[in-house]
């Protein structure tokens, strides 16, 4: 029986699983268009909490010697339910092999190409894409904002749409990208809107603004930067606004940051966690009701990994290498006694063997 678009939308809204909705989008072009519609996604997200269709990670180390090699990989959260081929990036200009993922929000990925830069200020070739619908939009270099050849491009961050547009939920029709540029020790910022316009972003209230070059990691939909003096600066991925919080004085954060011994990542509940790794000890800090940070868990790595097959008592005489941080886990590897990557669950502090290095960061894709 044929049904009009309104009835089809009502039927699809009642699909309770995000994974099942992704499979429905693969049925035909009409269903894919209906599911990709911004108004439909707004209604669907108001009825169903988001779940991850899977996770992307950049190949590490990257291989770019010939076409078809390397490129980001997608790992489905449920291989039986999610067809990884639907999340292929082979539709990107030049092929997936020439792009790296820099950020992700909802069903969108922010990507850049290390093979090409635009002048001035070394602005990399960038785009935002939606793998499920195989759409992308290039991010053109900013003009007319007072940026000149003395400025250098630093980084880009993918943000939700304006609150007045589609209830602020991110989509290909309303996303924003915040880019930072450095001039000496001072950082400047500019905002790209989906209509290809740029505007200057004031960050004068952040003191000093140079902290935006000291990236601490991403967690709970925000990016974090270390501001010195136990101060953490956060960039809210929903609003595009900056705020600050104070880190516990029980740690020497200047030393930890300098030695790359601590980062921010997501807990399994979607809230940010700070983890530190110093020699044999790993600590996890959580934020109480969005307020102050406090020590949540700690574990001796030599005890947590004792039952793993590759375990050696001498492995933790020095701090292990931090390989990957993802949703609810950290992947580490000893520097001595052989290389044997293992993961630590941030909730249980249990360990598990890891068969391969997944790169420096894992990027979540909600599919819809």
UniProtKB/TrEMBL annotation:
InterPro entries: F-box-like_dom_sf, F-box_dom. It holds the Pfam family F-box. Residues 3-44 form the F-box domain. It comes from the Eukaryota. PANTHER family: F-BOX DOMAIN CONTAINING PROTEIN-RELATED (PTHR33207). This is F-box domain-containing protein. It comes from Setaria viridis (Green bristlegrass). The lineage of its organism: Eukaryota, Viridiplantae, Streptophyta, Embryophyta, Tracheophyta.
């Amino acid at each position: 029986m044929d049904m009009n678009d309104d009835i089809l939308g009502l039927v699809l809204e009642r699909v309770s699983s995000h994974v099942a909705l992704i499979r429905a989008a693969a049925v035909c072009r009409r269903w894919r268009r209906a599911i990709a519609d911004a108004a439909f996604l707004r209604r669907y997200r108001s009825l169903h909490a988001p779940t991850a269709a899977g996770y992307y990670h950049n190949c590490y180390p990257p291989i770019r010697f010939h076409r078809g090699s390397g490129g980001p990989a997608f790992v489905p959260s449920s291989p039986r339910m999610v067809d990884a081929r639907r999340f292929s990036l082979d539709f990107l200009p030049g092929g997936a092999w020439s792009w790296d993922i820099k950020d992700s929000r909802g069903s969108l990925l922010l990507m850049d190409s290390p093979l090409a830069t635009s002048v001035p200020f070394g602005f990399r070739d960038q785009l935002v894409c939606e793998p499920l619908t195989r759409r992308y939009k290039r991010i053109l270099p900013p003009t007319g904002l007072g940026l000149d050849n003395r400025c250098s491009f630093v980084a880009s961050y993918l943000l939700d749409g304006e609150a007045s547009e589609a209830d602020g939920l991110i989509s290909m029709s309303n996303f924003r990208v915040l880019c930072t540029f450095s001039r000496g020790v001072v950082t400047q910022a500019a905002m790209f809107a989906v209509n290809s316009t740029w505007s200057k972003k004031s960050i004068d209230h952040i003191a000093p603004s140079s902290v935006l070059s000291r990236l601490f990691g991403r967690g709970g939909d925000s990016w974090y930067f270390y501001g010195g003096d136990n101060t953490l600066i956060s960039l809210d991925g929903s609003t595009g606004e900056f705020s600050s919080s104070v880190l516990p004085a029980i740690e020497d954060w200047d030393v930890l940051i300098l030695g790359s011994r601590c980062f921010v990542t997501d807990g399994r509940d979607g809230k940010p966690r700070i983890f530190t790794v110093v020699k044999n000890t790993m600590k996890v800090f959580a934020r109480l009701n969005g307020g102050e940070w406090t020590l949540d868990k700690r574990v001796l790595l030599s005890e947590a990994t004792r039952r793993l097959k590759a375990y050696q008592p001498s492995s933790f005489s020095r701090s292990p290498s931090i390989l990957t941080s993802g949703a609810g886990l950290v992947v580490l590897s000893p520097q001595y006694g052989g290389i044997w990557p293992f993961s630590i669950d941030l909730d249980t502090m249990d360990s598990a063997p890891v068969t391969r290095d997944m790169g420096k960061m894992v990027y979540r894709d909600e599919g819809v």
